[in-house]
Amino acid sequence: MNILILGDVVGSAGRKALTSNLPNLIKKKKLDFVIVNGENAADSGVGITKKNAEDFLNAGTDVITSGNHIWDEKETMEFISSEKRLLRPENLISGSPGNGKGIFISKNNKRVAVINLMGNVFMKKCEDVFQSAKKFIELVKLKRDADFMVVDMHAEITSEKMAMGHFFDGKATMVVGTHTHVPTSDHRILEKGTAYQTDVGMCGDYNSVIGMNRDNSLKRFLKDSSAKKHYPASGEATISGLMVSADKDTGLAKKVEPIIVGGALESKI
């Protein structure tokens, strides 16, 4: 079972890189299930539109996760309840539209549980992320309720992400971090068999400041009066994520492989 999760898609450059590369990647790597974090996919670099979601799904994405920017495009609140394959963080304030978790059927007819969580430190106010994770793991058991399980931990600080990885170790196929847009080099399989990476990076133009226009970002840091509101960089984008080959009998990871395709980042590795 080959599962791929791709980091935050940023703006039009990230969308183009995803939709043009993912179909071939699915064939080349024999991917059975693909998860994409799409919360920065809109032209502004924050939020996701219905058209963005449809394009990702048509390109072979099975589930779209998100994070703190999920409501930045107002239309999302209208269509998220009907599009079950788009998740918002499970621990958003109670009563939020849509779902934060689900069990989905893979291309090879396996049950894949996916939960989208959001950290509590330096993030928008939400319910306790570890209590939400605890409730989920009590409700959904690997190999009982789902053949495989993936956790997208959308968080700012590394300690929250690493702690969540250890919490799910042996209980989930993979736990990955998103949000900070920079891929970390700590991809590995934890002691009890769960694949982990602190951040899988972004799908966007890396000749930038976390996907945003470099020159404008520098002006903002320098408090230059000519600086504009952040907007995405538009150069050739890299798609970045983590692929896990999982054991069909245990649902746990056997192999992890960073996926970095195209753009500035690939050329430097």
Description:
The chain is 25% helix and 24% strand. It is built from 7 helices and 13 strands. The chain is globular, with a radius of gyration of 17 Å. The model has no long low-confidence stretch (mean pLDDT 96).
Q: Helical region count?
A: 7
Instruction: Give the strand tally.
Output: 13
SSE-based structural type: alpha/beta
How many domains, in number, for the residues?
1
Query: Would you tell me the overall average pLDDT?
Result: 96
CATH superfamily: Metallo-dependent phosphatases
Helix % is 10-25%
Shape: globular
Strand order of the largest sheet: 5-6-7-8-10-9
What is the distance, rounded to the nearest whole angstrom, between the alpha carbons of the first and last residues? 27 Å
CATH class: Alpha Beta
Uncertain parts: none
CATH architecture: 4-Layer Sandwich
| Relative strand content | 15-25%
- Outline the biggest β-sheet: 6 strands, mixed
CATH topology: Purple Acid Phosphatase, chain A, domain 2
Order of helices and strands: EEHEHEHEEHEHEEEEHEEH
Radius of gyration, whole Å: 17 Å
